[in-house]
Automatic annotation (TrEMBL):
UniProt keyword terms in alphabetical order: Monooxygenase, Oxidoreductase
Name under which the protein is recorded: Antibiotic biosynthesis monooxygenase
One Pfam family linked to the record: ABM
One Gene Ontology MF term: monooxygenase activity
Location of the ABM domain: 14-85
Lineage: Bacteria, Bacillati, Actinomycetota, Actinomycetes, Kitasatosporales
EC number annotated for this UniProt entry: 1.14.-.-
The species this protein was found in: Streptomyces caledonius
Length: 112
């Protein structure tokens, strides 16, 4: 299986960029992350996400949604809100969230 970026989508669409630094507390995090992945995929406006973590510990997740309404559904999900609260309590030293409307999008993939 090759690693590929999320494909370019037809604009406009919305992206949420969640940059974070984690604590050393991992208790319950993997299970909660798996559940959040399940929930967000049930959102018809969810397009996909990308994630990376630097060796120094900065994590960046970029999630893509068809529109602001789809992102609002995700933000207001009760299980997601509980996870966000636990993240502030246990899992994150700091984080920043940026939300933007994408106006232009294109991609490239080498064949073969």
């Amino acid at each position: 299986m090759s690693i590929q970026p999320v494909p370019a989508f037809e604009p406009p669409y919305v992206m949420a960029v969640f940059s974070n630094v984690r604590t050393t507390d991992d208790s319950g995090y993997p299970e909660t992350l798996a559940r959040m992945n399940e929930i967000v995929r049930e959102n018809p406006g969810f397009l996909g996400y990308e994630f990376a973590r630097t060796p120094g510990g900065l994590g960046i997740t970029v999630a893509y949604f068809r529109d602001h309404e789809s992102l609002t559904v995700w933000r207001e999900d009760l299980e997601h809100q509980a996870a966000m609260k636990q993240g502030r309590t246990d899992w994150y030293d700091s984080y920043t969230l940026h939300v933007a409307t994408v106006e232009r999008s294109h991609g490239f993939a080498r064949n073969g």
